[in-house]
Amino acid sequence: MEFWFTERQTEHLGITLRVRESLLVEQTPFQHLAVLDTYQYGRMLVLDGAIQTTEADEFVYHEMITHVPMTVHPKPKEVLVIGGGDGGTVREILKHPDLKHVRLVEVDDRVVAAARRFLPTLSQALDDPRVEVMITDGAEHVRAMRGVYDVIIVDSTDPVGPAVKLFQQDFYQAVHEALTAEGVFVTQSKSPYLDRKLIREVLGIVRSLFPVALPYTAAVPTYPSGLWSFVLGSKVNHPVKFDEGRAEKLKTRFYSPEVHRAAFVLPREIRGDLLPTE
User: Fold this and answer.
1) Which of 33, 236, 68 is nearest to 153 (CA)?
2) b/e map 163-182, b = 16+ CB within 10 Å
3) What is the pLDDT of residues 234-270, one digit of tens each?
4) Which CATH number do you get for residue 265?
5) Which of 106, 110, 123, 125 is the right S-S partner for 115, CB 3.0 to 4.6 Å?
6) Angle of CA points 96, 58, 118, to nearest 5°
7) Are 162 and 107 contacting, i.e. CB atoms less than 8 angstroms apart?
8) DSSP per-residue string spanning 97-150
9) pLDDT digits over 18-61, tens only?
10) Given a cut of 90, is residue 166 above it in pLDDT?
11) Are residue 130 and residue 46 in the same domain, yes or no?
12) Same domain? 136 vs 42
């Protein structure tokens, strides 16, 4: 008998993968969690029926959500990750030479435990002495901070359940206040083909707070539509004027200085919808 997993990405669209083995299935206090071993993409983390990461393509998402803001900031030393309990974003942050401390704030300790057990290529970074893992509400944590972080990365799930508050005006205001004078912020913002209304809303809020605010994209095969978006807010530095020398030295599989620049070049139809005045 064959075992297939389907993520229903919209009412009329889904992605289906053949599963070799179900490694973990449980209901946490916050969400339904599963780790599946698939034939096509290897081990896969699923939360509330939505694919979060797979061994085969996770590097695209984690490199792009991390190295873009990290190279825009001139010398990031203190970094906050909200969500991202699998450890992939932290792994990429640790590649930057000036880093002193990264704090991962994850609301669900079962996600961290599952990643430590089944996704070691991502979670091994959590044992680095520069890393602090806090199991608490990321929105509450950031509201208590003022001028602490050089870079804040919101590596959240979709805006449902515990992640809803991470897409709201008061949260982004708190993020702005938690950043240092040259602070840079980025959040994942879903698919520019399927979730454009959400991207416009997030971009509008970020633009009201940051003098520099732009969307960028990356191709992530297992995410809805295959094209994923991020919204970046910067207090000073423009994202296309980044540290190319530091970017070139990074050991990456997807990200490069050329990819960094190209990520901000949106397809004409998407750009016209998201940035109509530019």
Assistant:
1) 68
2) beebbeeebbebbbebbbeb
3) 999 999 999 999 999 999 999 999 999 999 999 999 9
4) 3.40.50.150
5) 123
6) 100
7) yes
8) TT--EEEEEES-HHHHHHHHHH-HHHHGGGGSTTEEEEES-HHHHHHT-SS-EE
9) 999 999 999 999 999 999 999 999 999 999 999 999 999 999 99
10) no
11) no
12) no
Please give the Cα distance from 146 to 143 (Å, whole number).
8
- Give 3-state DSSP helix, strand, coil % of the chain, rounded to 5: 35, 30, 35
3-class secondary-structure state, position 173: helix
Q: How far is the CA of 34 from the CAs of 5, 43, 111, 118, in angstroms?
A: 11, 10, 9, 11
Catalytic residue chosen out of the listed positions 57, 108, 150, 155: 155
Q: Which residue has the tokens 């296309």?
A: 240
Question: Helix count (H) and strand count (E) of the chain?
Answer: 10, 12
Please check whether residue 106 is in contact with residue 85, taking contact to mean a CB–CB distance below 8 angstroms. Answer: yes
Catalytic residue list contains 48: no
Q: How many structural domains compose the chain?
A: 2
**Can you tell me which residue has the tokens 């979060």?**
52
- In this structure, how many other beta carbons lie within 10 angstroms of the beta carbon of residue 204? 13
Pair 114, 143: CB distance under 8 Å = no
| Residue count (the chain) | 278
My answer on whether 64 and 49 are in the same domain is no
Structure tokens that stand for 91 in this block: 């792994």
Full domain range(s) for residue 204? 58-274
| Distance from C-alpha of 78 to C-alpha of 38, rounded to nearest angstrom | 36
CA triple 114-119-121, angle to 5 deg: 145
CATH code where residue 36 lies = 2.30.140.10
